[in-house]
Amino acid sequence: MKSIKLYWNEKNLSGGDALALLFGDRKETIKAAKLMTARMKEASTLSMTKREMRFFAKELQAGKLGVKYSYHNFYTKLLRKLLDMGFVEKDVLIWDQKRRKTVAVYQLRLQSIPERAPQSGFVKQAWQIARGWNELVQS
Known about the structure:
139 residues; alpha+beta
């Protein structure tokens, strides 16, 4: 396992490279995560239904989106990590205008962080990751 210091660069964390810190040097995982966030940002609610997520994972497995990524790895490595760390929420209820009913979705979650960074230590590093994530979602 590589040291976290190799990926710890404030320039890299801004603009969405917080994913490089979360997933290390797994280029396919980072590409799949960027594709997933881009697809979720297409909706005004920053979300995808469970069905849409399943079809997205199958498209990744087939290589239709420019990267070939296993269906199993998508759910166990990529999505599970984002869920566990609080970057994505599961079973958020939103109103679906097309279906005219409330549906449960996966939704990107902006991190609530202060404007100014903490002084130093782990809290500052966590703040930098959260800020990098927010910039990725808001861009």
